[in-house]
Amino acid sequence: MKSEVAKSIDEYIGRFPKDVQDILQKVRSIIQKEAPEASEAISYAMPTFVQNGNLVHFAAYAKHIGFYALPSGNLAFQKEISKYKNGKGSIQFPLDEPIPYTLIKKIVKFRVSENLEKQKKKTQKKKTTNSKKPILKKS
Question: Could you tell me where the Basic residues compositional bias lies (predicted)?
Answer without folding.
Answer: 119-139
